[in-house]
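#struct-help
A.M.: can someone run this one for me? Single chain, 115 residues.
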Amino acid sequence: MLNLKTGLFLSAALFASSSFADTKAVELSALSNGTEAEATYMASCFACHSTGAAGAPKVGPGNADAWTARLEKGMDQVVTNAIAGINNMPPKGLCFTCNDDDIKQLVEYMVDSSK
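D.P.: on it. Structure tokens below:
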């Protein structure tokens, strides 16, 4: 039996996934393992970036401001920080199967999805 916390997380994931599907106009590219950026975002990045947990910039339409200060350093630095980890974010977030190019595509997906 699912506990309440797990049920709420799954409900939030389903809601966010349907919200992104309805509002995003982002071209998805395949990551090295053949999955789309959105699928990997939902599996590895969503938990923190959908809520802003631990200071993570939120992802989704209307959240461009959350990325502005970070992008002042340039996209390359934002990607480098995501690969190495920064503040409360562990290296490569929670994507244990992502290579550096995958992380770059995920960061680009998150930024583009937040306009």
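A.M.: thanks! Residues 31 and 102 are 5 Å apart (CA to CA).
D.P.: also worth noting: The longest helix spans residues 4-23.
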